[in-house]
Write a structure and sequence with these properties.
By secondary structure, the protein is α/β, with parallel strands linked by helices. It has 11 helices and 16 strands. A hairpin with a 4-residue loop joins β10 and β11.
Length: about 375
Amino acid sequence: MGRRIDDLKAGVVGTGFIGAVHMDALRRLGVEVTGVVGSTPERAEAKHLAPVYVSYDALLADARVDVVHLTTPNHLHYPQVKAALEAGKHVVCEKPLALSAAESRELLELAERSGLVHCTNFNIRFYPMVQEARARASGLGEIWNVHGGYLQDWLLYPSDWNWRLEPAKGGALRAVADIGSHWLDLVQFVTGLGVERVFADLATAIPVRQRPTGEVETFAAADDVERVDEPMATEDIAHILVRFRGGARGSCVVSQVSAGRKNSIRFEVDGSRGSLAWDGEAHERLSLGRRDAPNELLLRSPALMDASARATTHLPAGHAEGFADTFRERYRAVYRAVAAGEPGKDYPTFRAGHVENVLGEAIAESNHDGRWVEVSL
């Protein structure tokens, strides 16, 4: 007989913005967070989030911990995932899964051999109206055109700084790996179409930034600190053309320097019988387009949604469910699988993380060579 979700326990590695989001979602599910690991025990203690482990090894040695959540800088994901799997822990890892496709392929193979539950954090799939879009995409006929983008402004100024700007910590790609990967995962999830080829044009709008000499947390202000000039090697902007298996075309604009756009992810899918569109800044709505009938604006309402999408929404219509709820619903799916004792199919696994690493390398190659690049998984 399987275990109950609220009998399971988690350990969280990383105490920044997204680590706190993980912990909040877990507690809302009734999952106990046994403790956290920070960059130092002192910094973790200062956050007052949960009991503090003295090290990652101490967390892995705690027999109470069923699932490890990794919310650390990108370069730490590969060794930390390997260590967790070797310790027999189920793993939820922030994206990117690793800094290279070779590393993510190894992690995927290790995870699949282990029989443990493994998940990559593509949480945007779990907005209820994204789930509804997936359910309705089959009614669009032949899909011809998929377009949209992901825009933010948190790196608009030369004085904006974060560890993601450092290739040694964040990887060779930045905007594409950080937010472009969400868009690419999302449209493949909604349409069911895999990416076959890419053509990319990447740009660094701010070639030199003013790096603080001390630590700065994500989205934190750092106005009155000492700074040094730091040349940039990663992209602020990406324009990506996509060809999907089956012939559909796509295009995506990714930017972390678009003034006024805080977290704007949007897509539109055009088919032979209709279209649909979703915008993360109006995430409770799904637009449905038709040629010979009135267009519709479907507001999130459990009574009007497909059964598969209804399962991911829990508040009545008019009571908004947002970003934090996507984490709760993803973990609900993950922890159901953990409780059942075997991996499930209704959440993004390490395979989704590996796909995005492969796409990222194809995008980088395309930008470097100025040509279409085939995607080989």
